[in-house]
Amino acid sequence: MPLNYKKWDQLELSDDSDIEGHPNVDKRSLIRWKQRDIHEKREARKVKIEHLSAQIACNNVLYPRIQSIQASLESPDSDKPRTVYFNSLVEQLETKPSKECPPGNDPEKLEQTYDGMLLSLLRQVGDTAKVAVKEAGVADDQREERIGKALADGMKEHVVRLKETIDNDSKELEQELKEQKKHITSEDMHDGFANKYVPPKPEPAPLPIAAKLDKPSKPKATTTTTEFEVINAPQKEAAAAAEAEDLDDDIANLTPSLEAFSKIPLRGFEQSFRFIQDHRDVVVPGASDALLGAAFKAQYDNKPKYAKQCVHQSLLLQYGDKLGVDGLRVFFKKMIAGDKRAEAVFMDDVEKTYAHLADRVRRSQEEAKKGGRETIMLASENEGDITFNVPAGPPPDELILGEGMEDMDIEEVRKALQFRWDIFRALPENLQKALQTEELAEVNKVLGDMEVDEAEEILQRLDMAGIIPFSEGGVRDETPAGRAAAGLPPAAPEVD
Fold first, then answer.
1. Residue 333 to residues 195, 215, 320, 326, 346: CA-CA distances in angstroms?
2. pLDDT tens-digit profile of 124-177?
3. Helices H / strands E in the chain, number of each
4. Does the keyword field hold Chloroplast (predicted)?
5. 42-63: per-residue pLDDT in tens?
6. Which of 64, 137, 280, 295 is the most exposed place for a label (fewest CB within 10 A)?
């Protein structure tokens, strides 16, 4: 196979082989000037290519919007004059401008956004139309009609001029790219036969919620048990509630990428599309459900603006999924191009979905206010099974151990009694009084007014101290106050 050496013709050399010197100028200076000229032209060409590419991309976004406005002015609605439509459009861009802008521009500066550029053009066309009608001396009854026609002609002229600009810039960009490819530079160098395999990036994993939503429900085995302490829901319902709570947590807990994606403003289609291209882990199974879960939580926390943004971004992913393999690109192409009918359908779906979600949150909050609070109660088939070992006071200086307990360390007994008394004194005052009555109904009344976490903690402390529900096991408070509290007669005096 013959070798092709034509590519070496593209080398742009700057050595002394092609430089004819001047007798009064040294050759080294000529070589340096030649090198600098080559590099300056190369950089200027690169800057011009970047400028033309950015200008073409910006004009491609503005052109369909200007074309749509011109078409609306050419065939106006019979119920709405052209001037009214034009003025309402200007007012919308002035009061509610979008922050979408070309890459590298400042979205906080109106003049650097797409809406700001379009507003500047509309103002220019409007001023020109008013001046032309005024100079023509049109009668007042025909003034609105003539201004509307002048607006349509002005927008048509700008549509033609912008199309010519895009075509000319495209041709010039093509010429510059051809010129750039004529010369080989260091940027074009690459390893010809390097054996380097770069594996493709792995597909992002689906969110945990996707697996839980797709998992078929399995029948659970039931067992018969006797419960001494009952929380006011059966065990099956409590397990179902715990599973639902785990599911809600998986929905509402967004990944960092999804959280950033959810904060993109409404109608930020171009920004959303760029974000999806840079973050593949946004388009995964379960992402749409997670965004809806975050919307529900935000609405419940009285953050309606963020809730609607989450609904908006969730529907973006849903629409892309419904449109097929290349659905996201097709969807965003229509939205960025300014397809009013497609955008109206999408935004109507956003409003309806958000309204449905807000209604669900409102009904959920109303049900919660009616008394859906979880409480803890103590229950037993026989009230006599629950005993109350309520201490009457701290351990006395003189302790008497029960029969058969003589070998116990009296100091350990004192510590146990002191621990029980400390636990009792640390309880809320109303619970202390309820325990002293030794009535289960009174204790449950106090526990029912507590939050679940607080009641559970208190029951654990009562269990540890042996105040409830265990029966006494041999250590007994034999002080007069303790025997009286236990319903025992006074102890007989000791005889030496």
1. 39, 35, 11, 11, 14
2. 999 998 888 888 887 777 888 888 888 889 999 999 999 999 999 999 999 888
3. 17, 2
4. no
5. 888 888 889 999 999 999 999 9
6. 137
Nearest 5 degrees, angle CA 130-CA 136-CA 142? 75
DSSP code of residue 492: P
> Can you tell me which residue has the tokens 């009641």?
455
* d(C-alpha 296, C-alpha 358), whole Å: 8
pLDDT band at 367 (very low <50, low <70, confident <90, very high): confident
Provide mean pLDDT across the span 229-251.
44
Q: How confident is the model at residue 24 (pLDDT cuts 50, 70, 90)?
A: low
Kindly state the tokens that stand for 332: 């965003």
Cβ contact 158:132 at 8 Å: no
Confidence (pLDDT) at 18: 52
What is the enclosing helix (H) or strand (E) of 62?
A: helix 27-74
Fold of 208-215+226-369: Methane Monooxygenase Hydroxylase; Chain G, domain 1 (1.20.58)
Angstrom distance (rounded) from CA 238 to CA 335: 46
The token pair that represents 90 in the structure block: 């200007």
Percentage of the residues of the chain whose pLDDT score is greater than 90? 13
Q: How many residues does the chain have?
A: 496
What does the buried/exposed string (b/e) look like for 159-175 if buried means 16 or more CB atoms within 10 Å of the residue's CB? beebeeebeebeeebee
Chain mean position to CA 196: 38
Q: Which residue has the tokens 């009084």?
A: 433
The gap from C-alpha 68 to its chain's centroid, in whole angstroms, comes to 33
User: Where exactly are the structural domains of the chain?
Assistant: 27-185, 208-215+226-369, 380-485
Q: 80 with 64: CB under 8 angstroms? A: no
Q: What is the DSSP letter of 223?
A: -
The SS3 of residue 221 is coil
Average pLDDT over every residue of 395-411 = 71
Beta strands in 94-246 (DSSP E): 229-231
Dihedral sign from CA coordinates of 213, 215, 219, 223: negative
